[in-house]
Structure formats: C-alpha cells, structure tokens
Amino acid sequence: MKKLLVLLPVLAFSINVLFAQDDELPPPSSKPQPTTQPTPQPNAPDQNQVQGFSKPKKLDLSKFIIEPNFNFGIGSGIVNVGVSPYVGYNVWKDLYLGGGITYLYTGYSGIPVYNILGTEVGTATAHTNTYGAGVFAQYNIWRGVFARAKFEMLHSDADNITPNLVTNAQGGYSFPMVHVTIPDLLLGVGYNLLRNKNFFFPIIVSYNVLYPITNTTYSIYPHGLVIQLGFVNVF
User: What CATH number matches the domain at 63-233, 2.40.50, 3.40.1000, 2.60.40, 2.40.160?
Assistant: First the structure.
C-alpha cells in the first residue's frame, strides 16, 4: 500500500509532462504554413534562368541603294560586254557610302598585221579583260538629283595591238599580252530616272580627275568626260 501511495505522485507528474509536450506540437490535422515569398516584379529577370545575349537589330533594307550597271556596245570592229554592280548604304542623313565590282570584256577584230617591210599581210583579233573594284560616296541633293565621287582600281589583261607584228607557229597572228593597272577618280552629278529611292537607273555626267595620267589605251574611260545613261557608259 505504501508503494502504491509513492507511485501515484510519480505517475501523475509523468502524465502532466506528456500533456505539456503535446500542447507544444501542432495538431495532427493542421497543415504546414507556407514560407513567405517575395512578390515577383513584372519586369524583374528570372534568377533561375541564364541571361542570354540581346538580339541584334535587324538590317534596315530601306537604307540601301542598288545600281546594277551593265555595259554592252558594238562598234566598227569592237564589242564591249560587262557588268559593274554597286551597292550603297545610308550612313548619315542623305549621305551614302558603298562599293562594287567591275568586269568588262572588249573584243577587237579586223586588226591589220604588217611585216617588217610595212606591208599588210593579214588581219588578227585581240581582246582585253578588265576587272577590279571601287568605292563611292553619294549625297542625295533633291528629288533624284545627287552628287557622287567614285574611285576605282581596275586591272587589264590585254593584247598589245600597238606593234601589229607577231606571228605564231601555226601561221596565224597574235599579240603579246600586257598587264596594266589603272586608277580612276570620277567626280560628277546625276539624276535617277526612276525616281526610286533604293533602285537606280541614273544619268550621270562625270569627269575623270586622273585622266591626264591614265593610260587611255587600256582604260574603260577613253575620255576625261564620262557620260553614263542608265546602265551603259555612252561616252
């Protein structure tokens, strides 16, 4: 009986401690409270995503000008066929900078050939291939009127028809080849016949500043004054 009286207070104290611990725990049916998250900003970058490079700006095609020059001409014993496309880009207000390439084939026929005594012994054909590149600056003045400066460096591989005296082993006639590099600087004004901002069909009157020091025998500009109508050099 005495042992029972001693155990009762110990048992009561133990039950009281257990109930006190249960009160500190959340009830079984309660849900865990979510952790407070900061409110995302509309334009804030996602920190979980890797930031890439910004997209490059698209090329503005409306700022280009295109001049697809062609050259075709037939004369007495001569034919010219060539292309000279040029493209420019609007860099500031009405100022355009650009460049292009040139290729021109010139064929000659019926060239007289003489012997050492000066007697004509027959005729021969010859040809010239001219190719190169150039740059230009153009300023649009008003309603299709423009001013232009164009510099070209052209190279010619040509039959030297000056001696008119070369005979090959087959009994025909040919000429020695010459290789000439010719610079040209054309300054002039023009008018775009199409009245189109991006596509040019111009008439241009220019002067070749380097004409006095140019080898006109092999130049595609045989005169100091150069007149271009449409895609063809007419003078």
Answer: 2.40.160
